[in-house]
Design goal:
The chain has 20 helices and 14 strands. It is α/β, with parallel strands linked by helices. The protein has two domains: 194 residues, 3-Layer(aba) Sandwich (D-Maltodextrin-Binding Protein, domain 2), CATH 3.40.190.10; 202 residues, D-Maltodextrin-Binding Protein, domain 2 (3-Layer(aba) Sandwich), CATH 3.40.190.10. Strands 7, 8, 9, 10, 11, 13 and 14 form a seven-stranded mixed beta sheet that branches. A five-stranded mixed beta sheet has the order 2-1-3-12-6. This is Sugar ABC transporter substrate-binding protein.
Length: 449
């Protein structure tokens, strides 16, 4: 996800359009830079490798600057970059991979997309390389490797930044109600009644966007049954959605919906316009479960809400009797760079040298921090302390580095086919058009597809 805590963020809907498999509307002519691939990651000079990634500032500029630094230090083995607009990238890379003409370095989201490349033999197995270069792996958040790992083998280099889902709350609304932030699921249900009595919506939710609803289920599944519940789905185990913990999580979810825990009309609110965030900072809603990328837009659009310290944030609380570790989180554990299996040996060596010397080097780390994002690198506490938003960035860092499991968002982890079915089924579930049993039956039907 292209996000920027300090300023405006990309629409997560646009990002997930790629992952969920809807068709690319833009033509390749709309791409930021669309020079032709020379096949197998070829470039313009001897030994050159190619690298495709997304347009859009500030991250495009950071990526490009990293390539330029690498090329300056390695003039005989350069990397030729090409940047593509978000809506066209997925189709472009799919076509190139299928034709055996992918770039050497492939920017991506890991999870389901990476798994499909692995199964088609289109990307390199990097497991032994990471073993031989343990220092490269050891400096990164351990949880960032989950979405890069398929069948216990590593197929991509974790890169860039982290964005967990967190529970935001309006401190001023809580103070007026004499309430405290929830420490359990029982607290959440009790707070629903507290805020309804005050004529305040307990939770803001942009339910029309579907993936916003999904965040609730991700946490409930995790807190009740532990990370292994969805892991079984990801690994394609037959009837994995039938886990009793899944049924309990779905039941609790609909209890919250039926209790009017969400803003009235939530199913007609879209996340793209940030209306859900506005409900929180204007005091019309007390809480909001959302990604840390929303911090920047609340800071820029919410008047003095963030600056005055009215915004609270916390990890999702435990569920009574649940097996999950309340220190774990979900969301975006990083971005990922794979190497085309069709690249030449020389090009693969260039890519690995890029991983070792340029990806998340000191300059890139500082650039991400300056834009209000947290790089997936351990030991950046000093730099965070000197940043523009030290308190919030430290919270993001601590949440991410202390999580034993950082689960990737479901619609990124699943295949495009399964992800679209998931989002559609979740929408029906939150509208109470289907219940837990039908949800489970539908989702079991797309396991492994």
């Amino acid at each position: 996800m292209e996000t920027n805590v300090a300023g405006n963020s990309y629409s997560r809907r646009n990002f997930l359009t790629l992952v969920a498999g809807t068709s690319a509307a833009a033509t390749l002519a709309a791409c930021g830079s669309s020079g032709p691939s020379t096949g197998g990651g070829g470039g313009d000079s001897k030994g050159a490798a190619s690298y495709w990634y997304l347009t859009g500032q500030p991250n495009e500029g950071i990526r490009t600057a990293t390539v330029e630094r690498f090329n300056k230090a390695n003039p005989d083995t350069k990397i030729a970059p090409n940047a593509f607009a978000n809506d066209a990238y997925k189709q472009k890379i799919k076509t190139a991979l299928g034709a055996g003409q992918a770039p050497t370095l492939i920017w991506g989201w890991g999870g389901g997309g990476l798994k499909s490349w692995v199964e088609a033999g289109q990307v390199e197995d990097l497991t032994s390389w990471f073993t031989e270069n343990a220092a490269v792996k050891d400096r990164l958040f351990p949880t960032s490797f989950g979405a890069a790992t398929i069948n216990n083998k590593i197929y991509a280099m974790p890169a860039e930044t982290v964005a967990p889902i967190v529970l935001f709350y309006n401190k001023e609304v809580f103070e007026k109600a004499g309430a405290q932030p929830p420490q359990s699921w029982a607290d959440i249900m009790n707070l629903v009644e507290v805020f309804k009595a005050k004529k305040v919506a307990p939770f803001s939710l942009a339910g029309q966007s579907r993936w916003t609803n999904m965040m609730w289920l991700e946490f409930l599944f995790d807190r009740i049954g532990g990370s292994e519940v969805f892991q079984a789905v990801f690994e394609g185990e037959k009837d994995a959605w039938s886990n009793p913990s899944a049924k309990l999580a779905l039941t609790k979810m609909q209890e919250l919906i039926k209790a009017d825990g969400f803003i009235k009309g939530f199913s007609s609110i879209a996340a793209d316009a940030n209306a859900d965030q506005a409900l929180l900072y204007t005091g019309k809603a007390a809480m909001m479960l959302h990604g840390t990328w929303t911090y920047g837009s609340m800071a820029s659009d919410g008047g003095d809400f963030v600056k005055s310290g009215k915004l609270g944030y916390m990890n999702f609380p435990a569920v009574e009797g649940g097996k999950g570790d309340p220190s774990d989180t979900v969301g975006n554990p990083g971005q990922y760079l794979a190497i085309s299996s069709k690249a030449t040996a020389e090009q693969k060596d260039v890519a690995k040298k890029f991983f070792q010397s340029a990806v998340l080097d000191d300059t890139e780390i500082k650039s991400f921090l300056d834009t209000g994002s947290v790089p997936i690198v351990k030991g950046t506490e000093t730099q965070i302390a000197a940043s523009k938003d030290p308190e919030f960035l430290k919270f993001v860092y601590d949440t991410s580095v202390n999580a034993k499991v950082f689960a990737q968002s479901w619609d990124q982890a699943l295949s495009p086919t399964a992800a679209e079915t998931l989002l559609d089924t979740i929408a029906k579930f939150f509208q109470l058009n289907i219940g837990p049993d039908q949800f489970i039956t539908t989702m079991n039907g797309v396991i492994g597809k």
